[in-house]
Specification:
mainly beta; 19 strands; 36% strand
């Protein structure tokens, strides 16, 4: 019996790899020829520290989930996906081969650029009403979930001029129309009313339509036991945003000139002497 146990142990020793002699050297394997892989400084943020050349030899310092912690011959440390590393037999001495002085050229990526390099300047045509320009408006009439119906028109009023290069392109007092998106009166058993309004566009001073991004929902105090209808009171103020750049013509917003005032008054004829 003891002989069988010893024989089984010997067989397992030769068939299974030794856990005490784990491979600590790997070679970078790229998905495509003449490519490279990223060396991450963190497994959490996956911030790129450097790039590793195909075939480069690295020392494996850590094994965690789907990543290897590695150290390069230059001393750079980081993490590499396990799918990008092929384990190789450790060489005597444990020294990694020094990478060539002039590594093969590769395609440059945005990671090779300065991390704080500014993006290219945005080119905007002159006299353009920019996206996200705020417009302040107020509700001209109280609305309630008890009487409102989906699809009803709601009127707002512009509270202040919207200026573009000093020229008013939307005048104070201009009307803006919205529409009821949701209206449901209060119900029993704690169901408060719901009410929401959306505005998709407005008309500028020259008659041009400007797209908007606006959605307002009435809030109901749920701290009481009784149910309530949702309401938006008259003169409630909102801030809506222009939803896209709108290219305009400056001359379309110039005030009309009084032609009669511009035309010169004919001079009266001098009196003729009596004969």
């Amino acid at each position: 019996m003891r002989f069988l146990v010893l024989l089984s142990a010997a067989t397992l020793y030769f068939l299974l790899p030794s856990t005490g002699e784990a491979q600590n050297t790997g070679q970078i394997e790229c998905a495509r020829s003449d490519d490279y892989v990223y060396l991450y400084s963190s497994m959490t943020t996956l911030q790129v520290r450097a790039t590793l050349q195909c075939g480069e030899i690295v020392s494996i310092t850590l094994r965690y989930d789907y990543y290897y912690g590695v150290r390069t011959a230059k001393g750079d440390t980081g993490f590499v996906s396990q799918s990008s590393v092929v384990l190789i037999k450790d060489k005597p001495g444990g020294d990694l081969p020094t990478p060539p002085a002039n590594p093969a050229a590769r395609e440059r990526t945005h990671y090779d650029q300065h991390p704080h390099s500014a993006p290219p300047p945005r080119v905007v045509p002159p006299f353009t009403l920019l996206k996200d320009t705020p417009v302040r408006i107020k509700l001209t009439k109280t609305i309630s979930s008890r009487t409102a119906r989906v699809g009803d028109t709601v009127e707002f009023e512009v509270l202040e001029d919207v200026l573009l290069e000093g020229v008013p392109v939307l005048n104070k007092g201009a009307k803006v129309n919205g529409v009821i998106d949701e209206a449901e009166p209060k119900k029993r058993f704690g169901h408060n009313g719901t009410l929401s309004v959306s505005i998709t566009s407005l008309r500028l001073a020259d008659g041009e339509q400007a797209p908007l991004r606006a959605y307002e929902q009435a809030s109901v105090d749920s701290g009481t036991l009784s149910t309530k209808d949702a309401t938006m009171s008259q003169d409630t103020e909102f801030t809506i945003l222009i939803d896209a750049d709108v290219h305009l013509k400056r001359e379309a917003f110039d005030p009309q000139k009084d032609n009669s005032a511009a035309s010169p008054t004919p001079a009266s004829a001098p009196p003729q002497p009596n004969r």
